[in-house]
């Protein structure tokens, strides 16, 4: 089994203590951070499928998520830029009612590495929490809202519409597995991205 396959297997199994060391071994064996990250994202898809089929339950999903986060911690310094230039501040959060943060954290990492200062509000962020953060920070150019549940899509809509009503000059980008470009346009978002890499590209485009 290659080191990347080992990382994938241990994330799926939720082995938080083993994953950081294996990620480092994968890097040492020549794998790129992007390849290792993709393997861990693939693991989470497998975990999701096992949850859907009733093979595993919420606690197993949670420990797999923790294992992935530990692996991402090892990769983060290799993927984030030096912060020497700033395109402005980006406020990011997962919308109200939604506790999923791995995708949001990856999007934050990539937007930060594209040259933004990052204010991360975490998960379960109410619509007016985004507005407060815009007001409490300087030079906010962009708000990034993540939503992973079909049941929290209304929260995404409320967040976008509350932000645009209070701060029309600030651009809003949305994403997350159930979000489509059509839905993003329908709720008035300025941008949509399907993954963390394209979120960074879209963020630069919107802020320029
Ligand atoms: Co939950 N969960 N979960 N979960 N979970 C999903 C999302 C689910 C698809 C699993 C399934 O049924 N197959 C399903 C949602 C179904 C639906 O809504 N249609 C689900 C469910 C049902 C639930 C609960 C309701 C389960 C329950 O309690 N019965 C519950 C809800 C809790 C809540 O939020 N209120 C729940 C809880 C949890 C845990 C807490 C246990 C845990 C999250 C822990 C954490 O995040 N710290 C968890 C996990 C781990 C998952 C899965 C397995 C993995 C999610 C993940 O991290 N993926 C997930 C199944 C799956 O995704 N296949 C599932 C990896 C991550 C890198 O991908 O987050 O999609 P993702 O992010 C991508 C893109 O979406 C995009 O870029 C990212 C990377 O490139 N993206 C953006 C994300 N945000 C973006 C923002 C952007 C742009 C792009 O611009 C701003």
Q: Indicate the radius of gyration in whole angstroms.
A: 17 Å
First-residue to last-residue Cα separation: 45 Å
- The counted number of beta strands is 5
Task: Name the hetero compounds present.
Answer: CO-5-methoxybenzimidazolylcobamide
Query: Structural class from helices and strands?
Result: alpha/beta
Unreliable segments of 5+ consecutive residues: none
* Order of SSEs: HHHHEHEHEHEHEH
Rough outline: globular
What's the number of helices? 9
How would a crystallographer describe the biggest sheet? 5 strands, parallel
| Beta strand % | 5-15%
Q: Order of strands side by side in the largest beta sheet?
A: 2-1-3-4-5
Mean pLDDT across residues: 95
Keywords: Cobalt, Metal-binding
Domain B12-binding N-terminal: 1-87
GO molecular function: cobalamin binding; metal ion binding; methionine synthase activity
Domain B12-binding: 87-208
Question: Can you characterise this structure?
Answer:
The chain is an alpha/beta fold. Helix content is 56%, strand content 12%. It is built from 9 helices and 5 strands, in the order H-H-H-H-E-H-E-H-E-H-E-H-E-H. The chain has helices spanning 3-12, 19-28, 33-52, 58-79, 102-113, 127-136, 153-166, 181-186, 196-207, and strands spanning 89-94, 117-120, 140-146, 171-175, 191-192. Strands 2-1-3-4-5 form a 5-stranded parallel sheet, with helices on both faces. Helix 2 packs parallel to helix 4 (58-79) and helix 6 (127-136) runs parallel beside helix 7 (153-166). The chain is globular, with a radius of gyration of 17 Å. The mean pLDDT is 95. The structure holds CO-5-methoxybenzimidazolylcobamide (B1M). CO-5-methoxybenzimidazolylcobamide (B1M) is lined by residues 41, 44-45, 47-48, 51-52, 58, 61-62, 65, 97-104, 106-107, 144-146, 148-151, 173-178, 193, 195-196, 199.
